[in-house]
Structure formats: C-alpha cells, structure tokens
Amino acid sequence: MHILIITVESLIVGLLVGLATGVGAARMFNAPVVQALGAFRTLGEMNACEGDPASHFSFGLGFFFNAWASAVGAGAFTQDVTHRVISNWSASVLLLKNKNVAETVHNPKKMGLSGAIIGMIVVTFLNVTSSSIPSSLQVTAVKVLVPAATLLINTVMPIIFWLAAIDAGRRSGLLGTIFGGLAALIMGNAVPGTVLGILVGKGVDEIGWTKTTKLMLIATILLFVLSGFFRSFDLSAIKAFGMGIPQWLKDFHSIFGN
C-alpha cells in the first residue's frame, strides 16, 4: 500500500514537473520574444547537443545517475532532474521522429507533452527505488553511484563539450578552450565555461560582432570575474605564486564575508 501511494503521488508530481520543464525549455529558444521558465545553462547544454537524439539522451543519462544517487542516499532530488534529465530526454524522444528542432525542441506544446511523460517515468522511478531500497543498501549504492557520476561529470563531460567546441569552429574552439580552462580553475568544472565559449563563438560566426555578441562576451567575462572573486580565486592564485596578499584585498573580501 505504501509503494502504491508513492507511485500515484509520483505520477502526479512527475506530470506537473515534466510539463513545466518541457514547456519552459522550449520557450527559452523563443526568448526574448516570449519569456521563458528555465535556466541559461539548460539552453546552452541543449544547444551543444546540436539536435542529435543520442547526444541528448546520453547527456541526460550521465546526470540521471547522479540524481539517482542523491535520491537513494539523501532522499532528495537534485536540480539535474529538471534542468538536464527531463529536458534532454524529452528532446531526445521528439528528435527520434523529427530532427527539425524548430518543430520539436523549440515547440512548447510538443516539449510539454513529452516532458510530462518523461517526468512521470523519471520521478516515479526515483521515488519508488529510493523508498524500496533498505537503509543498509543505500550506503552501498551511494558509494558506487556517486564516484561514477562524479567521474562522468568532472572528467568525461568536459572533454565531450571541449571536443564539441573545437568541432563547432575555430572561434568557438578558442573561446571554449579559454573559458573552459578558466571554469575548471575557478568553478572546478570546465563544462559551464566551454558551453559559454560555444555560445559566444557561434553567435559571432552567425551574426558577427554586433551589440548582442559584444554584450554576451562582456557578460561572460563579468561572470568569471565575479565568480572568481566570491570564490576567493584571486587570493588562492596569489598564494600559489608565493606572493603576499595585500591587506587592502583581504579587507575588501571581508566586506562580503569571504
């Protein structure tokens, strides 16, 4: 009876979450004409898959294991369920029949329907398995799944996106390498920087150095500067070079509590 209740509730939650995720992911491609519910990284990561159903599926699968480990070990969903798993698997299902992204991935109605179905399956699976596994086995499952997911996210995915950046062209490859390297140093993962490099590079390739692409580049640089500052990357870099940290810089960091 307990499993039945969890299943019914999960199907309802999964339907609502998947519907919102699918519609939101599709509407992001129509911004700024239409406002969207989603995340910038979701848009960049879905663009990086370049409308290939296998790429969308494999990308979502990698983060699914991480989400599964979190659900089993901690009893909580990670943001990967909505931002990466449901959105990419929904796109993958639609692209199997029609590889025209304008008619599938960019269509809120189709993505919403696909997302609702995928959401019901994913949420139900995560909830039922996490509630069914004995607590003694949860520790073992986490010890196996978490290292595998970590290796995939921190090692395999950055390489895949870097290769995608190089394949996208000389400009995207250069910016993807630079921003990916900075992201690895500052954030600990090269994927966000590589995705941003691809977006800026392809934007310049498509429309040139316009006001929009210049703003994208400035915003990206500003993002790295602020991220580095609030993570105290500048202090760590100075220490790494064996130099003394100026007192005014320490005082400036202390204002923000870092």
Would you give an account of this structure?
The protein has eleven helices and no strands. The protein is mainly alpha-helical. It has two domains: 1-133, no CATH class; 153-258, no CATH class. It starts with a helix and ends with a helix.
Main sheet: strands, sense, barrel:
none
Mean pLDDT: 85
What is the radius of gyration computed over CA atoms, rounded to a whole number of angstroms? 20 Å
Total beta strand runs: 0
Helix content: over 70%
- Provide the structure class: mainly alpha
Number of helices: 11
Summarize, please:
The protein is mainly α and 258 residues long. The chain is 79% helix and 0% strand. It has two domains: 1-133, no CATH class; 153-258, no CATH class.
Explain the layout of strands and helices.
Layout: H1 2-28, H2 40-48, H3 53-74, H4 80-97, H5 108-132, H6 135-167, H7 170-186, H8 191-207, H9 211-230, H10 233-240, H11 247-255
List its traits:
globular; 258 residues; 0% strand; mainly alpha; 2 domains; 11 helices
